[in-house]
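Amino Acid Chain and Its Fold in Token Form
===========================================
Structure side: the spatial fold of the chain, written down as a series of whole-number tokens.
Position: the record begins directly beneath this header, with no further notes in between.
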Amino acid sequence: MSLGGIRDEAEIRGHRRTYVGALPGRIIQKIRNAGTRNPVMLLDEVDKLGVDFRGDPSAALLEVLDPEQNHQFTDHFLEVPFNLSRVLFLTTANVSHTIPKPLLDRMETLHIPGYVAEEKMHIAKEHLLHKVTLENGLSEEEISISDGVIQKIIGEYTREAGVRNLERQLAKITRKTARKLVDEQEKGQERNGPIRVTKQQLPNLLGPPKRKDTRLPEQPTRGTGVGLAWTETGGDVLVIEAVTMKGKGEITLTGNLGAIMKESAKTGLGYIKANASALGLQEEQIDNHDIHVHVPEGAIPKDGPSAGITMTIAMLSALSGKTVRPDVAMTGEISLRGNVLPVGGTREKVLAAKRYGIQRVALPADNRVDIEQFPAWIRKGVEFIYLEHISHLIELLLQVEEQAA
């Protein structure tokens, strides 16, 4: 049952029989169609319910979804109580903040992450390729798309949590392939074997790539930090930059950052200022210099505390003149005392590091439990560095420039 766009309470509770064209509510109609009192009922897009002068459908759903009340659910058309307690209700939503709080309180919420690149690859090979090939009049013997081509489409032509856009891109390739086959047949050309789609052909088939991979530093560099981020489309790698200039000790933050991320940068700077002597910094290095922190891809909004340690390392490197090793990606929230606090999205972040060829990942010690629960294929080839305090990371990453050279 789709709830998207429903604005009338009568859709849930039904109409009274005094109205012309009265019908039971959609809940009772679906149970009648199912022919059983204990079906599984999926209420799709519960976050898209609307409200207008005809009532509030979400208020009517309060009784439907409450196991303490729904054994006597009253539909206006039936005018007698109906037992809904044996129905298993499932609801879906893209976001939870638009669902009314009383209604959300009656649900057990399960947060399902988006697909990672490896999962999209399996979905494309097992389902999407077969589907789009048949839809566009081809057989699987007439077209061959390699794993490398699918990986390139996923990485450079789609940026999404699901696979809808991936399916569109594959369909576009199969349509153009079908046209090529028809042209060859009209010209009387015979083909031995399938048409093979290669990476080099993708710009002609799909146009230029929609996004570029982040350029990771190849050598130890001053004022940079390789961080890991969680996005709705999966994990990503961020190269956070920091530079210093003469000033009054102020901080500038750019890159379309949210309030929480800005606070994390100020917390990291607070830790550096409070422990300047222990970190080998002179007061004039901090008081007589402004610091500018930038997170590239400024068109994309970014927020969350998990870049705290990365921004702290980048700022400390810029102030001290020491370089940062580029072979370790990091994630974690920082406190004013320098403690590294746990973060979420570790699965997506670790896979993002693997995708970029980074084999060492530094993350909070409290996230060790998450890592141990990962399948072996995620942990394979990655060395995990667990942090209690940022001092461990400073000793590992920061090095004097002469030594780095």
Q: What stands out?
A: The radius of gyration is 28 Å. The mean pLDDT is 88. The longest strand covers residues 234-246.
